[in-house]
Write a structure and sequence with these properties.
homodimer, mainly alpha, Four Helix Bundle (Hemerythrin (Met), subunit A), 73% helix, iron (chains A, B), heme (chains A, B), endosome (chains A, B), transmembrane (chains A, B)
Chain lengths: 250, 250
Amino acid sequence: RCHHCSPAMLDVPFLPFCAFLGALGLLCVAMVGTWCQHWRGGFSLDGSSRTFNWHPVLMVTGLVVLYGAAALVYRIPNTWSGPKLPWKVLHGSLALGAFVLTVLGLEAVFCFHNSQGTPNMYSLHSWMGLATVLLFSCQWAAGFAAFLLPWAPTWLRALYKPIHVFFGSTILMLSVASCVSGINEKLFFSLKNGTMAYKLLPAEAVFANTLGLLILIFGVLVVAALARPSWKRPDSDSPDSRQVQDALGG
Amino acid sequence: RCHHCSPAMLDVPFLPFCAFLGALGLLCVAMVGTWCQHWRGGFSLDGSSRTFNWHPVLMVTGLVVLYGAAALVYRIPNTWSGPKLPWKVLHGSLALGAFVLTVLGLEAVFCFHNSQGTPNMYSLHSWMGLATVLLFSCQWAAGFAAFLLPWAPTWLRALYKPIHVFFGSTILMLSVASCVSGINEKLFFSLKNGTMAYKLLPAEAVFANTLGLLILIFGVLVVAALARPSWKRPDSDSPDSRQVQDALGG
């Protein structure tokens, strides 16, 4: 009896959803900072575990939250008309900012390992994280070359665009999976002594587990927002370009 | 000069892609079984770590591979014509099989913890995994009630379908993230003594890290296949039902 209200009921407007995502992203950044400051001894550059603490903060801020913001730029309705270049520059700059924070985040953990004599790159977390960062660097370089430099021919841009869109969502899923495995691993490392063991679920464990779940929710919501057809640039709705743009699942 | 070849070049046919996914899924199952059999002492029902070994095998087989197969049923072109009921029954049965294996996988880890006196449900891995299984049980029950029982009105089915599709992909992403955090955690637990420590990257660590990456690739490819518009049932391409079906990012 209410067949036609169903699409309308699910048709959340983009901007309020985006404001909610922004608040959720800021909450994740605040929580990862609080975790490292309040329970893990704060921050320094001396190669100690206080140097390591930059790693989760920079990764959550760069590779999840700022990356998510960069990915969502073309879903803002204002970007659908007028010159494209300023929006391309904004998208590329936010992604570059995310990339710089990510590289600093890697630097923090390598510096910590090296000063402690711990080998680098042995855990599944590190393999997955490095694969994510390598994909991100290829994504940024190829996006810059194809869409910002003037030399790429139209057919190459059309061919590469769905690949860029597909890897955009994929890299975010991988970075979220890297974050939760890293938080899990860090809690096992840190909460070892008798009164504070992870398995007794002290306040720090509840706090950081909750942070992990919020990062997952943030990632799922950004990927869903990217995939939603009614939030995509309308000029990509012609059957031909739609097939190109969506061909790989973007 | 080659503008029209771009969509065609990306237009992989579904069935060969599906065969590749099937082979990748079987490889993941074979590898998790080999890991537990060859390096972790095999399987038993006595509450020891050999009982725990059922946990990764059942979770990868049920919550990732069989779940992925269930999710892809409606992408088989044969399902697009003729009566829908047999395909609905197949989809629901594969999902039920995945759910049963998942519950047995939970049973294995609870049985192991209880017989060792280890608390349950403290790690981020366990929180994320349990959230995934709870979402999966709601998804199965609501799907059964809305699409297989005859009483749901058409408007309710139309309203619920995009939600079911959205959670279908989301649950798979969460189960993949749960698997990789679990493999990472298990390797830290198991590879502790001097000669075999995880950080020295013994053969077992390389093998299980590779398994984790293959599970990630399997999950990303299934989610991408589900999202690809040209692989969806054509009758959902009318503007109205397409908006409903895709509204939440399916």
